[in-house]
Amino acid sequence: MGPIGGDVLQKLMAKDLLAVEVVGNEVRAARVRNSARSLEIIDFAAMKKTDPGGDLPSVEEVKSLAERLRCPGGPAVFVTAMARAFELHMDRSKVASLKGDRLREAVRWEVEPYTGITGVNALVGVQPATTRDNRPGEVVYEDLDQVAITVTALERNVYRAVKERFRVAGFALRRIYPPDVTFYMPLLMDRLETPRAILEVGSDYSNFAIVRGRTPETINTLALSMESILAHLDGEVISRELEDSLRFMARQVPSPEPLILSGVGAASERVVSYIAGFCASGARVLALSRSAGITDSRVEGEHAVYGTVVGAAVRELLDKRGRELGIEDSVPVAQRLKKSAYLFPVAVTAVTLLFLVGHYGYMHYRESTYKKRITQLQQEVIERKGKIAEYEKLLKEDADTTAEITVVKKKLDYINGRADIELRGIITQIRGMGACVSDRIILTIIDRAAVEATGQDAVKAGTYRVKGVAEGQGTLGRFMTALQRQRWCQSARLVKAEQGEKDKAFLSFEIVVKPVSQSL
C-alpha cells in the first residue's frame, strides 16, 4: 500500500477522545487521537467557569470547549477531584479467585472507611498491583499474604449527573478518573524504558510519582502547592516542612533524569527554578506537543497545566489495564442476568420461534429458488431441443445440397467429357442403319432406350428398337445381316414380323439392335 493509501487507512482507523477536567474556577479540555501507530495530542484548551462554585462542567462549557477543539461529538472522559483514589490491601487468594465485576463488587463494600461513600451509592474502579520479581537476597517488605489494590471511587449520583451533561452536549461519557491516577500518564507516551519522576504542583496540593515502564513505582501526595511555595519565596510564610518535603522528594528522582513538572506551578518560572535547585539533575516543564495549533496559549510553560487532562485521555486510550481504574456505571453481567432471569423462558421461546420462522423462511426461499431454477432449466431444455431440431434440419439440408452438388458435378463431367463422344457414336450408329436400308425397306421408328427397361420387353440402356416395313422376308433378312456386319453392332434380334392386312407381300417388323459398348 502506498503512502497515500496508508494515510487514508490510518485516518479511518483513528479514534478521537475528548477529556475534560475541572480545577478550581477553570475548565480544561484536550482532544487526543488514538491512531494505528501511536497516541497523538490534537489540541487542548481552557476557559473560566461560568459558575465558579461548581465542581462539574456545564453543558455549555463542554460544548464551547468541544467547538474550540473542533471535536463535534463522540466518546469522552472526565477528571475530577471528587473521585477518590486510594490503596486497599486484601487477601491474595481471595483476589486471585475474584476477577473483573466480582472483584469490583467485593471492593465496593470496603470503600466507606476510606472515602465516606456508602457501598450502596459507590461506583468503583479496581486495579490489582502487578507482581514484581524480586532479586535474589532482596529484602521484601510486603506481606506475601496480602496484595495491594488501587481503588478509585465516586458517588453514583455524581456520575449520573456528569453523564447526563455530557449526553446533552453530544458526547458519550466513558469513564471518570481522579487526578491522582492520570497526572503521570503523559510520560507513558514515549521513552517507556527510562525511569522518570514527575511532580504535579497544584493550587491546593501536589502529586509526585516515579514511573518505570508502564507502571508507577511510587505515588505520593505532598502538602505543598504553588501558593505555599510562592509565599515561602516571598518570605510571607517560612516553612521548614516545605523544604524538607522537597529534599525528600528530590532524593527519589532517578538520576540522571531531571524532575518533570506539571500543573499550575509549572507555569511559574520562580516555582520551577526553586524546585530545580533541590534536584541533582535539575527540573524541566512537561512538554506537551500538539499537532494542531487551533487554540492559543499565553506562554509555552502553561501547556504543562494540561498534563492531568491529557493523562486521562492517554489512560483511556492506551490499553485495557489502564481503563481498569476508570469509574463507570455499567451493570455487571451477573447482575443483569440475575435481574432478567424471569425473561429466560420468554427469550428461549422467542429464540426458538425466531429460529423456526427463520428456518421456514429459508426453506421457502430455497424452494422458490429451486422452482425458478427448474423453470429456467426446462426453458433451456426446450430451447436446446429446438436448436437440435434446427441443427438436424440443417444437416439434412446439407446432405441434400451435397447430393445435388454431386449430381450436378456428374452432369458437368458428362457434358464436359462423354457427351460429345456418345453423341458421335449415336450419329455413327444411325448413319450405319441408314446405309443398310435398301429401296425395298422403310424404317418408321428408330427408338434408343435411354434407361434400362424391365419386364417382358426388357432392353438395356443404349439399345435401339427399330420398326419398319420390308418387302418380303428376304429383304428383311438382308437388312438384319447388313446391320450385324456393322462394326458398331453387336447383335440384331427380330422381335416381331407380321404380314400386312392389305398387302401380304409386305412385312411389318420390329428389331432390337444392340450396339457394342466400346463403340460409344
Spell out the key features of this protein.
13 helices; alpha+beta; 520 residues; five-stranded mixed beta sheet; Nucleotidyltransferase, domain 5; Alpha-Beta Plaits; 3 domains; disordered N terminus
In short:
It contains 13 helices and 17 strands.
Low-confidence runs of at least 5 consecutive residues: 1-6
Q: What amount of the residues lies in strands?
A: 25-35%
Tell me, what is the CATH class of the largest domain?
Alpha Beta
What portion of residues is helical?
A: 25-40%
Number of domains: 3
Order of helices and strands: HEEEHEEHHHEEHEEEEHHEHEHHHEEHEE
Characterization of this structure:
It is a single chain. The protein is α+β, with helices and mostly antiparallel strands. The chain folds into three domains: 12-131 and 144-339, Nucleotidyltransferase, domain 5 (2-Layer Sandwich); 340-429; 437-519, Alpha-Beta Plaits (2-Layer Sandwich), CATH 3.30.70.2830. Helix content is 40%, strand content 25%. It starts with a helix and ends in a 5-residue tail after the last strand. 27% of the residues are buried.
Write the layout of secondary structure elements.
Layout: H1 3-13, E1 15-23, E2 26-34, E3 39-48, H2 59-68, E4 74-79, E5 84-91, H3 92-97, H4 101-108, H5 112-115, E6 122-128, E7 146-155, H6 156-168, E8 171-177, E9 196-201, E10 206-212, E11 215-222, H7 226-233, H8 240-251, E12 259-262, H9 269-276, E13 283-285, H10 307-318, H11 333-339, H12 344-436, E14 441-448, E15 464-471, H13 472-485, E16 489-499, E17 506-515
Parallel strand pairs: 1-4, 4-8, 9-12, 12-13
Antiparallel strand pairs: 1-2, 2-3, 5-7, 6-7, 9-10, 10-11, 14-15, 15-17, 16-17
